[in-house]
Amino acid sequence: MTFTEQLLQELADAGGRIVKRDGGPDSVNWPSRIAAARRSGRIPKTKDLYGGWCRDGYEIKLVDIPAWRLAVLEPVAAPSRLTRPHAVVKAMQNSPQPLGLTKPVQGRALRFIQALITAAEAQGHSSFAGTTGTAPPHHRRRRASPHFTITAQGQAVGFLVLQEQDRKEHIATEKELAEAKKYSWARIPRFDYTPSERLRIVLSGGQPHRADEWADTAARPLEDQLAEIVQEVGLRGEAAERKRQADLEEAQQRRVRWEAAKRQATTEYAEAYRVRHLEAQEEAWRHAAGLTEYVSALRRHAESLPTGPARDEAEAWIAWAESHVQRLNPLNGSALLPEIPDPRAEDLKPFMRGWSPYGPTC
């Protein structure tokens, strides 16, 4: 049994995931083994072998290949001539130097942009021109504003078309050598760069699936990769739509939880209000009882006074005091439940258990 066959059997027995904990100088070079297994041709066509280091050792997984990677893509053919250019392509043509490219590659770039936009719009996407007449500096070209944008299901995907550079060793001139000798700050460049005819497309925005960049290679020119780029735009749009739906569902669930928390908080607020009302009544009752006892003592004192103005004044004061105590004593009213006022947001805050009383998103 070969190593790959043995590994596949081990993965099947373990449910598709194993962790190798080998260590020491004689440990197996698992990344090399995994790479060899991938090249062996024995991995099922619908599966992908993954290997990577984790906390417990080297993790190996056999995972299903996403359906979009197995899909047969319809070729996207670039036109041989731009007889009816798209509005975005026209905007590029009207620039003094379309996309900042040199003349030898401008026509080819515009043709495959035409093919990309046409294929994308056939799938219901929309396209818009961006900064059509400039090439970003090399050191920030992957963060520059896009030359054009294709929007799929609300997800904007920016496109930069870049011209690759050929590099060769720089041969210092006599002037450069003299300046380097004379000035400590003078630097002689190591390489010379010249624009090549190879192009690169850089995508930005959305969740990447296949890649973020596509480039001319000796085996595959960009024209042969246009179908993958169009698919990538659609995949990012679908991912954005799934995220929007998930966010909407999460927002709805969050509102349901918040409304339940608010109802519970309102119930607890009402209960707390009744408790405070009861305690206030009890305090008022005790206070009234103390005043009643004092008023009784006042009456006994007044009755001991001789008839005259002093006794009359004392009885008038006692009559007022008895009326006041009667009003103060809660037992002299009806023993009804208190009317609960509508709570304000701040009233509910102590009962919301971490939620904001102002809403589920606050």
Task: Explain the overall architecture.
The protein is α+β, with helices and mostly antiparallel strands and 362 residues long. The chain folds into 3 domains: 3-65, no CATH class; 87-244, no CATH class; 266-351. Helix content is 45%, strand content 17%. It has 9 helices and 8 strands. The strands form 2 sheets. It has a 5-stranded antiparallel β-sheet. A 3-stranded antiparallel β-sheet has the order 1-3-2, with helices on one face. Helix 5 crosses helix 7 (226-303) and helix 7 (226-303) packs antiparallel against helix 8 (309-328). The model has no long low-confidence stretch (mean pLDDT 91).
Order of helices and strands: HEHEEHHHEEEHEEHHH
Biggest sheet, in brief?
A: 5 strands, antiparallel
Rg (C-alpha, Å)? 41 Å
List the uncertain runs.
none
Task: Write down the overall mean pLDDT.
Answer: 91
Between the first and last Cα atoms, what is the distance in angstroms? 61 Å
Number of strands: 8
Please indicate the count of domains.
3
Count of individual helical segments: 9
Biggest β-sheet: strands ordered side by side in the sheet: 4-5-6-7-8
β-sheet strand percentage: 15-25%
- Structural class designation: alpha+beta
What is the approximate shape? elongated
In which range does the helix fraction lie? 40-55%
